[in-house]
Design goal:
Layout (H helix, E strand, L loop, with lengths): L2 E3 L9 H14 L7 E4 L5 E4 L6 E5 L2 H10 L2 H10 L2 E5 L1 H4 L1 H7 L5 H12 L26 H12 L3 H5 L20 H15 L7 E5 L5 H10 L2 E6 L2 H13 L6 E5 L11 E7 L10 H11 E14 L9 H10 L8 H10 L2 E8 L1 H17 L1 H4 L5 H20 L2 E10 L25
Parallel strand pairs: 2-4, 6-7, 6-9, 7-8, 9-10
Antiparallel strand pairs: 1-3, 2-3, 4-5, 10-12, 11-12
Amino acid sequence: MARTSSSTLTESLDSGPAAAATHIIDRLLAGFDGSVAVRLWNGVTHYFGPNPPAFTLVFHSAAVLRELVLRRSPIPLADAYFHGRLDVEGDLYAALRLKRHFQHLVLTGRERAGMFVDALRLLLTPTRHEALGEVRTARRFTHDHTPDSDRAAISHHYDVSNEFYQLFLDERMVYSCAYFRSPEQTLEQAQANKLDHICRKLRLQPGERLLDVGCGWGALAIWAAKQYGVHVHGITLSQRQLELGRARVAAAGLEDRVTLELRDYRALEGEGVYDKVSSVGMFEHVGLANLPVYHATVHRVLKPNGLFLNHGISHEEEGWHRDSVDSAFINRYVFPDGELDMVSNVQRSMERAHFEIHDVENLRPHYALTLRHWVQRLEHHHEQALQHVSEATYRVWRLYMAASAAEFESGGTAIYQILASRRPDARPYGSPVPLTREDLYDPKKTC
């Protein structure tokens, strides 16, 4: 049972709805493995757990509790947080543990009926909250992954504002998992580590041609051209990324070695054009049904024995179930057409496209660290962020990245770098990689 403390506002409100709200939160938080406080719109605060609360849920609207009863999903809580009907004070990561609690909460038929009656008693309860701006949702996307649909989906996520992304990314604006040699390393150093780790895995050599699929703001293209002397062609579907990426290439004096363009991967021309291909944080947007086309396209433009590094997120369940909580949240608010699968299925698709897999590395702990850095930086630049986006959009990104960090930490999602090569038509053929991985960690090659 919750411990309760009341404010002076309590007596001015009807005790019926207040009692109903108390009954609901008592049932919903029964058995929660943690300590939490809940402050209602009437000023009453309820405390759960044996220790001081790690966080406080502040309900400004009874409608949030009502939705939670009717749907019993974390989605109403997330939507209420974005729109200012709910606030989280204290440790956001501790609050995110409620997601798993609600998903596994078991109620008797009598308890469910009682909660439904209590929810009806909240219908006329007043609401106190201020609008925080519009939340962009992506309900129009159908996951058909046509070129037009994919362009719109990428624009929804990446064209928010270059200035907004600069507030939480590293100085090179790398929007993918970093590579930490120790947890104490800075984000800047860890992202430099990642860029070099990819280049080493690809065994880049001066004069080679590298294709970067989903080049973002050009960080990997610039690094590979500057540090390894290769010629890089990067493609993206984001107009804003392209504009800033080209400006950064020009500022680095690399226009003779780096070209960036707005192009769908399916529109790539030629066969055996590139010595190496990288794809970092892009294939999540391809769609599971399109993985064969994606891998076949990369295979076609890559030279025989050429290396392909695919860096992308996977999850622990097979297939992409759009009605699940995680899928619904990601597709509605963050990545409209994003789809994930088990890493084994990704590898199977690569092998069916006649790639030979040489190396698979799981960077799951690295992404958890990366996301925590991003959240901390975004929170630090809260006021600056509001110059570019609404408070509601800020909250979407804060919650999305914090929830993603928690998911990587729990093992629900992971991220893999898969290094493969295009099999030559003739056999026997030599290996495109050394016999060991020692060259990846040779300190003499550190840039």
